Amino acid sequence: NSTAALQTLHTEKLMTASAGTVLNTPIGGSATTVTGLGVVIDPVELRPRLYGSFRRDVVYVSPTYDQELHALAHLAVSRHVGISVLSALEDGPEVGAMLTRSMNTFGQEGGGHRSVSTIADGLATQGDTSGITILHGITNAADVTAIAGYLARTSSGVVAIPMAHLDAWYREIVAA
Questions:
Q1: Which of 49, 85, 96, 174 is 20 to 30 A from residue 64's alpha carbon, by CA?
Q2: C-alpha pair distances (Å), 106 with each of 2, 76, 80, 81, 99
Q3: HEC states along the chain?
Q4: pLDDT digits over 92-128, tens only?
C-alpha cells in the first residue's frame, strides 16, 4: 500500500515533494466510500529513477522517468536520429534497457547505454553526434561545465537532461 511505500522511502533516502489538498475526494473502498479531503503528493526525486510498475493508488503529477525516456524515444524516432544514455550511475543498464523497450514500441532498433565514471569524462570522449544523448548521473559542477563545452563544440548533438537533474542543477546549467 502507499503508506508502507512512503515509510520505506523515508527510511531509505532523502526526498522532496510537492503537495496539495483536494476537496471532495473519494476515500475508502467501494462499500465504505465517503467524500472528504484528500492529499496529492508529487515526489521530486534527487536523481532519476525508474518506477517500472503501475501503482493503482498513486497518481504522478509530474512525468515519471520512464515517461521521460518514452517521450525522448518518440522524439528520436520522429526526427530519424539515434538516441542513447550516457550514464554515470549504477542503474545505467536498466535505464538503457527501458529506452530500448521504448524504441521497440515505436518499431525501431536502438537505445542502449554507455557507462562512464562521470558525465564529464563521458562527454570528453563523445564524438560529434547528430543523435540525442540522455545524461543520466549529473553529480557535480564539472559535469555541468562539460555539458556546456560539449554543446559548444558539437554542430548537431543534442543532450537531454532528466527533470530530476534539471531541478537539482538548474542554476548551474543556466549559468554555464
A1: 174
A2: 32, 10, 12, 13, 11
A3: CHHHHHHHHHHHCCCEEEEEEEEEEEECCCCCCEEEEEEEEEEECCCCCCCCCCCCCCCCCCCCHHHHHHHHHHHHHHHCCCEEEEECCCCHHHHHHHHHHHHHHCCCCCCCEEECCCHHHHHHCCCCCCCEEEEECCCCHHHHHHHHHHHHHCCCCEEECCHHHHHHHHHHHHHC
A4: 999 999 999 999 999 988 777 899 999 999 998 876 6
The neighbour count for residue 49, using CB atoms within 10 Å, is 18
In terms of Cα–Cα distance, which of 94, 102, 98, 95 is closest to 77? 102
Q: What are 44's strand-pairing partners?
A: 16
